[in-house]
Design goal:
By secondary structure, this protein is mainly α. It has a single domain, classed as ABC transporter involved in vitamin B12 uptake, BtuC (Orthogonal Bundle). Helix content is 82%, strand content 0%. The longest helix has 42 residues. The N and C termini lie far apart (54 Å). The model has no long low-confidence stretch (mean pLDDT 85).
Length: 283
């Protein structure tokens, strides 16, 4: 038993576990909306688009959260402008914008190699997270949870049917901007835990897993958030014994849970679908 409690003897591991659990929970909640809206590529775009903002913030000595948040909002604004002013498909717009921002970030890193740690930005480094960064993560997570608690029903209707939301008098543009802002802020908070490359997995996998397990969105949010918290905490804990990337452990664990649910989910799993097909064939 003492062997399995070793990680809790180190302050940096305790910090890593609870910070990852917090970020995992917020990502899990947003993941439900991303899955319902079909914005998987949007999460990918924003997670990459924050990189130049982080680099500029490091160079200027500003909080990384400020730079990355502004960069994320600029990317979201650029996507919106290009989408409304051209006839390009949304996936093409997303691909152009997020690769451009990510390339700009890599260029800045190459120009200031001594001042910016590429590995910590791309892959995350939650084990070395500072108290200042933790405060920023807690603040961003708290604000995101507060907004979701107030607006989750409006965001639900917007994600499910934007036309119906508009017909009911809701300002769809504000809801669109609000969801983009929440995604940008959460991508910033998750940057230190799993890095820019794996943020998208935390914003998609929990929601996709919960989608397989329930038909009610309120339950989907709860399951997705719970999966985010548990897999993130366990992944951070397991990274001590694996002596590997914390983000890699978290995302790998989330993927394993998804695959298990994909096969064994009682309603939408592969085995359940085959059972229904056999029953229909017999009847």
């Amino acid at each position: 038993m003492d062997y399995w409690l070793i990680p809790f003897h180190y302050e940096y591991m305790i910090k890593a576990i609870w910070v990852c659990a917090l970020i995992g929970g917020v990502c899990g909640l947003l993941s439900a909306f991303v899955t319902l809206k079909g914005w998987s590529l949007m999460g990918d775009a924003l997670s990459h688009a924050v990189v130049p903002g982080v680099v500029i913030a490091y160079i200027l000595g500003l909080p990384f959260a400020l730079g990355s948040f502004v960069s994320g909002l600029m990317a979201a604004g650029a996507m919106t402008v290009i989408k409304t002013k051209t006839k390009l498909r949304e996936d093409a717009v997303l691909g152009i914008v997020f690769t451009t921002f990510f390339a700009l970030g890599l260029l800045l890193i190459s120009l200031y190699p001594s001042r910016v740690d590429l590995k910590s930005i791309v892959f995350g480094n939650v084990l070395a997270i500072s108290d200042g960064d933790i405060a920023q993560v807690v603040l961003i997570s708290g604000l995101s949870l507060f907004v979701l608690a107030l607006k989750w029903r409006d965001l639900l209707l917007f994600c499910f049917d934007a036309q119906q939301a508009r017909a009911m008098g809701m300002n769809v543009r504000i809801l669109h901007a609000l969801l983009l802002t929440l995604l940008s802020a959460t991508a910033v908070a998750a940057l230190m835990t799993v890095g820019a490359l794996l943020v998208v997995a935390m914003l998609i996998t929990p929601g996709a897993t919960a989608y397989l397990l329930t038909n009610r969105f309120s339950h989907m949010m709860g399951i997705s958030a719970l999966l985010g918290v548990v897999t993130s905490a366990v992944g951070a804990y397991a990274s001590y014994y694996a002596n590997g990337s914390t983000g890699g452990c978290i995302v790998t664990l989330q993927t394993i849970v998804f695959l298990v649910c994909l096969v064994f989910a009682p309603q939408h799993g592969i085995l359940a679908q085959r059972r229904r097909e056999r029953k229909e064939a017999r009847s």
